[in-house]
Amino acid sequence: MIEELFKLVQQESHTDIINNPAIPNEQNNQAVGLATESIFGGLQGALANGGLRDVLGMFGYKANVDPSHPVVSVITDNFVG
How far lies 26's CA from each of 18, 57, 79, in Å? Predict the structure, then answer.
């Protein structure tokens, strides 16, 4: 599952990570890996704390994930931190 998530993040991260001049090309995979770990860890943490409804609700968004969603906020804070 982590490998699938890594591939998905890699596919979707061209603008934010791969094409970002602030991230050296040789560190792209590491940045994608950190993003993947943050996402996976955030989902695991939410599920472990009884947040199944929040996680399922997060996947209900069709076009974009709502950045104010509680699970998204935790994942973003973990990654940025």
Answer: 10, 36, 19
Residues 6+ apart with CB under 8 A from 41: 75, 78
pLDDT tens, residue by residue, 29-71:
898 888 888 888 888 888 888 888 777 777 765 555 667 777 7
* Pair 27, 34: CB distance under 8 Å: no
Question: What one-character-per-residue DSSP string does 16-29 give?
Answer: IIIT-TTS-GGGHH
Amino acid identity of 51? G
Rounded to the nearest 10 degrees, how much is the dihedral formed by the CA atoms of 7, 79, 18, 22?
-170
At 70 the pLDDT is 76
Per-domain residue ranges of the chain: 2-80
